[in-house]
Write the structure tokens for this entry.
Amino acid sequence: MPTPDTATFIAEARAWLAQQAPPRQATAWGDGDDTVAVFENWTAAEERAETDRIRVYEQAKFDAGWGAALTWPAEYGGRELPLAHALAFQREEATFDVPRRTEMFSVTQQLVAPTIAQWGTDEQKATYVRAMLRTDLIACQLFSETEAGSDLAAVRTKAVQRDGSWVLDGHKVWTSGARIADLGIAVCRTDSTAAKHAGLTVFLVPMDTPGVEVRPIRQMTGGSSFNEVYLDGVVLDDSMRLGPVGAGWQVALTVLAAERLDSGNLGLDNADRAVELARHRGPLSEIERDTVADLITRSYVQRLTGMRVAAAVVAGEAPGPEASVGKLLATNTMARTSEVVRMLLGSDLTVESGEWGTWAWTEHVLGAPGYRIAGGTDEIQHNILAERVLGLPREPRP
Amino acid sequence: MPATSTAARTFDAAPAADPSILTPVPEHDDLREIVRAVVAKADGTWDRLMSELEIGSLAVPEALSGAGFGLREVGVVLEETGAALLPDPVLTSAVVAVQAVIAADQPADDLLEAISSGREVATVTWASPHDVRATPSGDGWTLVGTTERIPHAETAQHLIVPATTDAGTALFVVDLRHDAVTTRTRQVLDDTRPLADVSIAKAPARLLVGPERFDDVWHTVQTAGAIGVAAEHTGMATHLLETTTAYLLERQQFGRAIASFQAIKHRLADLLVDLERARSASRYAAAIFDADPEAATLPARIAAAVCQDVVIRAAHESVQLHGGIGFTWEHTAHLYVRRALGDEGLFGSSRAHRAAIADLVGL
């Protein structure tokens, strides 16, 4: 299929979007949903219902040719369009009141699907990639463990070969969306005699396999968006192994690199909302104005940095260091947003009053610290910048 | 950039342009290499920048016999001259004065040729206090007044200065060599950007921009100046990160390069994050200016606020991370602290820029 010119493409996208939803109007301040949660605070039933609602839209979008596969090859249901078209579609989509994707959708479509496309067998690619881009299947990450947080390669969950199958035993933590996921991507130790990074292998674990048990973790916001996942004698066919035995570290890095690139836009919606709050809580003192203007400046520059990454990728160049700083810019924006909100609301933040758009910010100020830990702690991000971008030596290892 | 804001419009608090405006341009890398090589030489830098590389004509439209590029290319030059703390009037004469002259009501080809070629040097009061009065005199004008803290005024031949007339403020150019003009050098923290006060006692002057267009032109000149300063700061931060990193990879303590200590690595990583913020902000502002100078008002202030903060932090981090040697007179680290602080005084603190940002977004 020939590449449509951008104007035609945008016009067609807009026409399709207009059939799906009304334009996203800026609802009047004080009206509608005032949620600013960093981590969703849903019961299992709510999480399932919300995911299904979004999935219906994602599937319709995919079937109409506008979905996550836009830039992918035809074999995955894609149109092989340049990234510039995908970005143009995203900009158009943001102006319509369509369901907004939750974290599990980007985990599935941006993290796990590309990893399977890179590392999977032909059969795995045929079975999972299209299904994940269309979100027929939702994926979750089975990475961290209690003794393997920043030091991910220290995972102790074991996979051993027995009678032609693999048997997994271990305990994963901090898995988002485990309650609704169809498939987990698990980093396991297959050779305890090999060097730490060399003894790992990745498996695709159907979450309904006997022996898989999900237990929600209650986080400091009071809600649950993460889970512990127990793997107790989980038997998998060798066809569920992703990548070569012993290549688990490389496969995991593929996921983590995608995660870092995917985090650049986090926090911007809430920063915008905090600026709106400032407009409605005025008049501002000079110090308050300065603090709000600083937040505006930081979110503006976070957006610019994302634009630089996009521009480089669209131009077919590997983005430079600007791509690696995205997560730190995002968590900084979140922290400054908290600062602005605390400053503006005072005890209206900490004492429930029933007033729209006040108590709701507790979800942000209690959730934001979590993103400094999730997706590679801010400290690990600093190590990555120092070692991979600046070329500084590693800490000596004992 | 003082608070003379003529743009009454309110700006969206998010960048509106298509990301393609930030697409990397390979020719910019070539330009950077060439400028860097010239700046690295000890002698003849100014002459070579002006007459060989013709940087004064870079952002002059082709219709005015310029190269027809813009502030993006000028920004590449200023990143390099800023990185080297070049004490020549690249920013004031080759960039800001040129931007003022190309906006003249009547073509000022002679003046443009003289300063864009580097044969003569002009300076501008674009960020300095001024109190100058202009009265008509025959075919021309006569200026009386004072203006302070003007970069390179001791060595420049021309001063571009706003002055009040009966019809409103207008922009004039006065010959600094005239007998009625006296300059007084000021003692400054940053010797790489020399400043002088200028007293004008009835000196003849030429009208560049009359009261009708003054507000718009002056606003554009100030915007270009702010973007130029931001580019210099980006270049300084780049240089500071590069040189500090190189030193920390060499310096051994406790039996290993101190760049291998996590406490050091994380500080360098923070400098890198800051540098990328500065690059994003300054390069975007320049790109927007080239597309539509009026739309660059907010991006220029954002760039000014971010880059001023970044350069002050980078300069102080450079001193600290160098340890004792970084606190010596002989080391260059203090020169960067001095430039960063001098610029903050002259061109405005990040807090002042943020106050303007708050105004521009209608906060």
